[in-house]
Amino acid sequence: MSQQILNLVEKASLKAEVPKFDIGDTVDVHTRILEGENERIQIFTGTVISRSGSGTRDMFTVRRIVAGEGVERKFPLHSPKIAKVDVKRRGVTRRAKLYYLRDRVGKAVRLRERKGAAKEEATGA
């Protein structure tokens, strides 16, 4: 009974359209940032190295290299602060978590691109 009530409360805060992306994809995360009275959008581009949770607690971690230093951010998928998530490139992975990328430097960080990714984008699948 209490689980059903919890699901009803959570359903109100879920986003209607959730973007389809997987681990290994390179994404642009458009984040709303408040600076005093003004609101602007800041883009964080990187590779999705993990996803966790479900429902309103669904989170994903994006990693990128800035000035030779690795930067990771965790984003709640259903947060109102996330304006949108654009998939730039689809990567081939065989694991659920890509934490091994933390130890890699330079071109070794790149993942192979998924075959047929261009076809998926064209058809909207």
Topology of helices and strands:
Blueprint (H helix, E strand, L loop, with lengths): L1 H10 L14 E10 L2 E15 L6 E8 L2 E8 L5 E8 L27 H7 L2
Antiparallel strand pairs: 1-2, 1-5, 2-3, 3-4
The proportion of strand residues reads: 35-45%
> Care to count the β-strands?
5
Assembly annotation: single chain
Unreliable stretches (pLDDT < 50, length at least 5) are none
Largest β sheet strand count, sense and barrel closure: 5 strands, antiparallel
| N/C terminus separation | 37 Å
Mean pLDDT over all positions: 88
Helix content: 10-25%
- The total count of helices amounts to 2
Strand order of the largest sheet: 4-3-2-1-5
What series of H and E elements makes up the topology?
HEEEEEH
Radius of gyration: 16 Å
What best-fitting shape do the alpha-carbon axes yield?
globular
Question: Class by helix and strand content?
Answer: mainly beta
Describe the structure.
The chain has about 120 residues and is mostly beta strands. The radius of gyration is 16 Å and the shape is globular. The chain has helices at about 1-10, 115-125, and strands spanning about 25-35, 40-50, 60-65, 70-75, 80-90. The protein has a five-stranded antiparallel β-sheet with strand order 4-3-2-1-5, with no helix packed on it. It has two helices and five strands; from the N terminus they run αβββββα.
